[in-house]
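Cast an eye over this sequence plus tokens and explain the fold to me:
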Amino acid sequence: MSGPQRRIRIAWTDTAKNCLKSLPKKVRGGLLHKADELYNCTDPRTVHKPLKGPLAGYYRITYSRYRAVYRVDEEELANGDTLATFTVLFVAAGKRQEYSRDDVYKVAQKIVDLGLIDAPREPPEESSATAEP
């Protein structure tokens, strides 16, 4: 019997997609490329830096001064072998601007506090990975 099989699904909330669309094209492409790299990892919680404080349980992708904030939901199904499904849910993207109310972490915290983590959607169109591996 082999080890557990893992499947990773990447989704962006509508709110996160709108944040991403407002970024420069080069930055958007860089963040999407780093997000796509999560498909090839064994556990998306170990790839990028975890956040602390009010956003504990969330992680960040960094591209220059820009960040994308995501959480990881795990579901394990036992049917002979264990199938671990990780859903990487992006909730915000934006520029890191310390001491500014527009800072990506402040925006992410507001999104979480207001419950604007809507139904997950497929990755944005510019994403190179269109299907799950």
